[in-house]
Amino acid sequence: MIIPTDEEIRALHERHAPTEAAFELVYTHCEIVCGIAEQLLADGAPDVDADLVRAGALLHDIGVYRLYDAAGRIDEAGYIRHGLLGHELLREEGLPEALCRFCSCHTGMGITRDDVRRQGLPLPVADYVAESREEEFVMYADKFHSKTDPPTFVTPASYAARIRRFGADKVARFTSMCETFGVPDLGPLAAEYGHPAA
């Protein structure tokens, strides 16, 4: 599989971003998630393709661009669809399925077909869950930064509290991933990007 370069990925973001502000928000978040993932990988993960993780992290939220309307407003109510929209966008660009999946399988701690039915989510009934170790690294790294206004870094305790409403199983999965992958040091990235912790 040919993995696109950082420059090619940035160009893809620039091509699909509806506004400069959207590009700055989404691409900066993807860069931060990439930095978090690489920090976690630095502790040793010999069975993980670091280049694939890097590309997946830089691409995972590209579907957010398809939620903007002509006036530059984002469809907050339909935000849960951004992963599926990103998967479709990358497929249309001819990228391999292994890269497309980073978009559709990073939301929350994974969305199951049962979640779609029970919560009445506006998604086709299917499982949208990380399966490979690379997908797990990107999904997990994504939990530590949010594109809120203003963007913020998220502590493990804060994230666990956020997802409690979706079920104890989601909290348990996040806690297990904290133990497996470790907790990133967000301080250097927070200083570099100037985003506070929440």
Explain how this protein is built.
The chain has 198 residues and is mostly helical. The chain is built from 10 helices and 2 strands; from the N terminus they run H-H-H-H-H-H-H-E-E-H-H-H. Strands 1-2 form a two-stranded antiparallel sheet. It is globular.
What are its keywords?
198 residues; two-stranded antiparallel ribbon; 10 helices; 2 strands
Mean of all residue-level pLDDT scores: 95
Q: List the total number of helices.
A: 10
Based on Cα principal axes, name the global outline. Answer: globular
Strand content: under 5%
* Largest beta-sheet details: 2 strands, antiparallel
Rg of Cα set: 16 Å
Strands of the largest sheet, in order across it?
1-2
How do the SSEs run, as a string of H and E?
Answer: HHHHHHHEEHHH
Total number of β-strand segments? 2
Low-confidence stretches: none
Helix content: 40-55%
Distance between the termini: 38 Å
